[in-house]
Structure formats: C-alpha cells, structure tokens
Amino acid sequence: MPNIMVIDDEKSIRVTLSEFLKKEGYHVITAENVQMARVLLQEDDVDVVLSDIIMPKESGMTLLKFLHETSPDIRIIMMTGEPTVDTAVDAIRLGAHDYLTKPVYRNELIKAVTNAVNFKQLIDEKRRLELQNQEQRENLERLVEERTHKLHQAMMNTAYATAAMLDLRDPYTAGHQKRVGSLARAIGKELKLPADTLEGLHIAGCIHDIGKIAIPFEILTKPVQLSLNEYAIIQEHPKIGYDVLRSYEMPWPISEIVYHHHERLDGSGYPQGLKADQIRLETRIISVADVVEAMSSHRPYRPSLGLQCAMDEITMNKNKLYDPFVVDACITLFNEKKYTFDE
Ligand SMILES: [Fe+2]
Ligand SMILES: [Fe+2]
Questions:
Q1: Which ligand has the nearest atom to the CA of 176?
Q2: What is the whole-number distance in angstroms between the Cα of residue 123 and the centre of ligand 2?
Q3: Distance from first CA to last CA of the chain, Å, rounded?
Q4: Buried b / exposed e across 146-167, counting CB within 10 Å, b at 16+?
Q5: How many CB atoms lie within 10 A of CB 221?
Q6: Nearest ligand, CA of residue 294?
Q7: Domain count for the chain
Q8: Are 186 and 319 members of one domain?
Q9: N or C: which end of the chain has fewer CB within 10 A?
Q10: Which pLDDT value is given to residue 301?
Q11: Cα 335 to ligand 1 centre (Å)
C-alpha cells in the first residue's frame, strides 16, 4: 500500500486530505510541521509527500530542497494558499513533482497523488531491475573469475606434469624447470610486466628444457664433463622442444621462448646465434633465470657453484650475454628482496 505523508500546520486540512486519501486505499501519515516530518520520514518509507509551503518556523520549500537532495526518489507535491507563478516555478525547480493551490479539491488531489504514486512505482521498479542487473553481473563476474582460476590451475598443472616427466628422465636436475619458471615470473614481476605475460613466463620456464626428453639418458646424467660430440647432442634440446610445441597454439610465444632460451645478446648462443633485438624480452628473462638456477644447483658433473657465483656470472656478462634490465631485476630480487628458490 503506497505511503503518503501530509504536512500542513492546519489540522482541518490534514484531517480532510487524509480522509480523501485513505478512502482511495492509501496509507497516510501526517505531520504539523517540517521538524516533525523529518523525524517521521526517518521512521517510515514514504512514497509521496504532500506539503504546505507556508508554515511557521520552517517553510515547506526547505523540506522540498532537503528531500530532493537526500531522497530524490520520493515524489513531492507542494500546496499553497497564496499561489504565484514564481512560487510554482521555484517549487518545480527545487524538484517538486507537482504543485496544487488551496483549497485543494478531492478530484484534483487524487489525480495528483495517483500520478505521483505511479511515477514512484516506476522509479522503484527501475531501481529493482538495476539491483537485479548488478547482482547478475556480479554473479557472472564471479563465475568467470572462478573458471579463469581453474583454467589457470589446469594449465599450470599440465606444465608441472610435463616438467615432472623430464625430471623422471633426468633426476639430477629435478625441479630445475619449475624453479626457473618461478624465478622468471618473479623477475617479470620486478620488471612490472603485465599479469598475462607473467603467466606465460611461468609456463615457458616450467617447460623450457622439454626437448631434453629426446636426449639419451647417459648423456643427460653423465657425471663427468661432456665430450664435444655429446655437448652438440645436448645443444639440440631447444630445437627439439620447439618442434614439439610449435604445432600447439598457445596464448603466449612459448615455443619461440623454448627455441631461443640458450641464445645470448652478443650472438654467442645457440642454436641460431641470434643477437640482441632478435631475442624477445621473455626469452632474455628465461635465459637469466635458467643460468642462475643452474649455477646455484648441483649437477652430476659438479657440486653447486653457489648463488654468489651465479650473481657474479650475470653481473660480469651484463650487456654482453644478458639483458641489463633483467640482470638488475634478478640481482634486486636476491640481494634486496631475499628471493629464494623455495618460494
Ligand atoms: Fe636448456
Ligand atoms: Fe634449463
């Protein structure tokens, strides 16, 4: 039942208007001044306010202005016994829905209130639909977020599983790819790369040596320095990895990164001897992460060289073999941010 508030300092008018409205099925609240109206408005949800303009202490116009600012959905009909065009214009300008002159006749009153109530119901319906829309949008966003998270997890788990398969063949370097993936992502984050690029870096790092799966076990795990011939076989792993990955479309240039992760800025790397600009930033990041992880870990043919040795290697060859920004970011990570491979 729509709720109507009648504000007038004359009791007879309040009573008469209330009776008219109640007979039409409206719920009516009355107030004899603006102060009282303010109190009642806090207690009840009012749809339409019918207010006299000229009243002792505060004018109805003050209430109109206040309500228009604080509760713009409430429809307000102003009434006055001293009508002028200026007052009517002022009332509408301040946000009144309608304007009636006294004496207010029944038909006129019902027509104005019905119109205001209908208008208020349309506003309420619009608000309800807006709220419903917002809830649906939020639900949809939540769903997309959940699915994206699951998809991301599935993709990372596939990369981890692929890395684990290589670990089975080469237990001496177990965990190497996973640690390179984590470090590469951390370096990318330090370089403030976008979240999507970091995801690609992480995955690329986790499978960068996947081509080693085709290298004979004896060579992979040989506890002594490799012969030139054996080393040449090992050097085939970036191309093998590239050949495996290139047929699968991915949202990141993973196969290219895998192909180029042993290339160096000065062209001394392999397999293609690419130079600076020919090597994309993501690959330069993987290269540094790869070298640092490899030097910090034990190998079948040597014990760990230690983190300091790895830092010295990338510092010494900064600009020559390794990207200077990537090297700086990596050093900041370990020296200032205390990055560890256990993360
Ligand atoms: Fe490699
Ligand atoms: Fe590697």
A1: 2
A2: 64
A3: 63
A4: eeeeeeeeeeeeebbebbeebb
A5: 16
A6: 2
A7: 2
A8: yes
A9: N
A10: 67
A11: 25
Residue 241 lies in a domain: yes
Residue 147, amino acid: R
**Residues 101 and 197 occupy one common structural domain:** no
Longest dimension (CA), the chain: 112
The list of the chain residues with pLDDT below 70 reads 300-301, 343
| pLDDT given at position 224 | 84
What token pair was written down for 173? 């370097």
Query: Which spans in the chain are helix H?
Result: 11-23, 34-43, 60-70, 85-93, 106-169, 176-190, 195-207, 217-220, 228-234, 237-245, 254-260, 281-296, 307-316, 324-331
Question: Does residue 149 belong to any structural domain of this protein?
Answer: no
CB atoms within 10 A of CB 69: 10
Residues 118 and 200 in one domain: no
CATH label of the domain that carries residue 17:
3.40.50.2300
User: Is residue 162 domain-resident?
Assistant: no
pLDDT digits (tens, 9 = 90+) for 78-124: 998 887 888 888 888 889 999 999 899 999 999 999 999 999 999 99
Q: Ligand 1 mean position to 225 CA, how many Å?
A: 17
Strands 3-7 and 27-31: parallel
CA–CA dist 20, 26 (Å, integer) = 9
Backbone angles phi, psi at 107, to 5 degrees: -60, -45
